[in-house]
Amino acid sequence: MSDQFVVLSGDFVTIKITGSASDFTSERRFPKGMTIFELKSKLELVTGCSCSTMTLELYDTEDKLVCTLSNNDAMLGSYPVEDGMRIHANDPASKGAFDFAAAGASADGKPLYTMSDEEYRKKGDTFLQFKKANKLGEFAKVDPEAERKNREAEAEEKALAETFTVGSRCEVSVPGQASRRGEVAFVGQTSFKPGWWIGVRLDEPFGKNDGSVAGKRYFQCPPKYGGFFKPKDVAIGDYPELGLDELDEI
C-alpha cells in the first residue's frame, strides 16, 4: 500500500492581517478548523471593521488576490490559505473611521459626535445587538458541564480513531443508509470539519468524492469511491468484497 497512516493535529496557519478601517499590519495565528464567521468575529477587534458588514480577501505572498472568503459557514482551511499570506478585512462603512477619530473630527472636518453607552445600548441596529442575538463575545454562554462532556467525547473519538489502521478492510454502517464495504485509506482530522474521521476507499461507487475535499487530498481513489465517516460508524474486520448476488440483495 502506498497510503500511510495520517493524523492531522493542531492544524494552524500564520497570516498577515490588514484592514480598511486603519493603516496597519498584524501577524496572527489561527486554526484552520475555525469558520469564516468566527474569524470575522476575532478580526473585528484587530481591524476595527464590523463583523456584520466585513468582507475578507485572501492575498498570496506576492500580494496577488487569491479569492474572497465569502462563505461564513466554511472553514478557513477549506480555502487555499498558507503561512505568510495576507487576509484583508474590508468594511466600507468604517473605512477611515479610526483616522478621523484620532483627529477628533469627521471626514468633513466637523467635530465627532460621541454617543453615551446608555444611548448605544438602546439602539437596535448596532453590533452590540448583533452579538446579543448570536451569543457572541461577552454574551456567549459558557456551560462548564457541556464543555467537559465535549472534551470527553472528543477524547473518546480520538482514542477510537487511533485503533484504525490504513489498509484494513472495513464495513461502514451509517444510520438510515445501506451498509457499504471498503478499505480504510485515511485516519485523522480534516480541514473541512472538526473531529476525527475515517476515510474509506469503497468497493462500489456509492461515495461522495475521490479522496479529496475542497481541493485538499487525503487519499487516492476513483471519483465516487471515496467517503469520510465517523469512527463509530466504521467497523474493522474480515469483510471481503461483496459478490453480485449480495449487491443485488442490498
From TrEMBL:
<keyword id="KW-0963">Cytoplasm</keyword>
<dbReference type="GO" id="GO:0007023">
    <property type="term" value="P:post-chaperonin tubulin folding pathway"/>
</dbReference>
<comment type="similarity">
    <text>Belongs to the TBCB family.</text>
</comment>
<dbReference type="InterPro" id="IPR029071">
    <property type="entry name" value="Ubiquitin-like_domsf"/>
</dbReference>
<dbReference type="GO" id="GO:0031122">
    <property type="term" value="P:cytoplasmic microtubule organization"/>
</dbReference>
<dbReference type="GO" id="GO:0007021">
    <property type="term" value="P:tubulin complex assembly"/>
</dbReference>
<dbReference type="InterPro" id="IPR000626">
    <property type="entry name" value="Ubiquitin-like_dom"/>
</dbReference>
<dbReference type="InterPro" id="IPR000938">
    <property type="entry name" value="CAP-Gly_domain"/>
</dbReference>
<dbReference type="Pfam" id="PF14560">
    <property type="entry name" value="Ubiquitin_2"/>
</dbReference>
<dbReference type="InterPro" id="IPR045172">
    <property type="entry name" value="TBCB_Ubl"/>
</dbReference>
<dbReference type="GO" id="GO:0051010">
    <property type="term" value="F:microtubule plus-end binding"/>
</dbReference>
<dbReference type="GO" id="GO:0043014">
    <property type="term" value="F:alpha-tubulin binding"/>
</dbReference>
<protein>
    <recommendedName>
        <fullName>CAP-Gly domain-containing protein</fullName>
    </recommendedName>
</protein>
<dbReference type="GO" id="GO:0035371">
    <property type="term" value="C:microtubule plus-end"/>
</dbReference>
<dbReference type="GO" id="GO:0005829">
    <property type="term" value="C:cytosol"/>
</dbReference>
<keyword id="KW-0143">Chaperone</keyword>
<dbReference type="GO" id="GO:0005634">
    <property type="term" value="C:nucleus"/>
</dbReference>
<dbReference type="GO" id="GO:0005938">
    <property type="term" value="C:cell cortex"/>
</dbReference>
<dbReference type="Pfam" id="PF01302">
    <property type="entry name" value="CAP_GLY"/>
</dbReference>
<dbReference type="InterPro" id="IPR036859">
    <property type="entry name" value="CAP-Gly_dom_sf"/>
</dbReference>
<feature type="domain" description="CAP-Gly">
    <location>
        <begin position="188"/>
        <end position="230"/>
    </location>
</feature>
